[in-house]
Amino acid sequence: MTVYQQGVPMEGWNDCPAVIPRPPMGKRKASRSRRVGMDRSPSTELPAPTAAETRLKLGSTDSLGSLMKSQGSEGEVLDSEKLEELYQNSSLSDKDVENCRKRIASLRGHERFVNEIVRRSQHEQAAVLNQYIVDYMTTNENVGSACLSLRKLVESQN
């Protein structure tokens, strides 16, 4: 039990805030124009916004940069042979592999990205691929659970 539930008075816990006196209306309007940054002249313009730098350089030489902009084409299919090799070489349990299969198969329209990750997993470090997967997840909607499964699969390679 807390102090107020026990009925013991506690100083200041439910006091009203102190009233702060305000100057009369005329003085407030006069002092407003003297504040810094309140210059109302039309000659001052706001500076143009600068482009924010992205974590993944889209103009980079690797093909994953272009994958971030465009999703898989209509005729693109998953490279099932290389994907099957990933499943076989993983240290995941059979139940986890089945979960990964279902979720990765649900990535309709993103086959090109999955194929590129599978292809690169043979010769690149998992940390680099994980960063690409996370960046792809942040730029595309409704790919979260499938990309997490893909990431788990990449991390579990022997």
End-to-end Cα distance, whole Å, is: 55 Å
Residue ranges: pLDDT <50 for 5 or more in a row? Answer: 56-61, 69-73
Mean pLDDT: 74
Number of helices: 8
How big is the Rg? Answer: 29 Å
**Strand count, sense and closure of the main sheet?**
none
| Overall helicity | 40-55%
Broad shape: elongated
SS content category: mainly alpha
Q: In what range is the share of β-strand residues?
A: under 5%
The tally of beta strands, per DSSP, is 0
Q: What oligomeric state do these chains adopt?
A: single chain
Order of helices and strands: HHHHHHHH
In short:
The chain is an all-alpha fold and 158 residues long. It contains eight helices and no strands. Helices cover 48% and strands 0% of the residues.
What brief labels describe this structure?
158 residues; mainly alpha; elongated
How are the secondary structure elements laid out?
Blueprint: H1 3-6, H2 25-32, H3 64-69, H4 80-89, H5 94-105, H6 111-120, H7 126-139, H8 144-155
Helix pairs in contact: 5-8, 7-8
Give structural notes.
- There is one protein chain.
- The chain has a domain at 64-155.
- The protein is 48% helix and 0% strand.
- With 158 residues, it is an all-alpha fold.
- The two termini are 55 Å apart.
- Helix 7 packs antiparallel against helix 8.
- The radius of gyration is 29 Å and the shape is elongated.
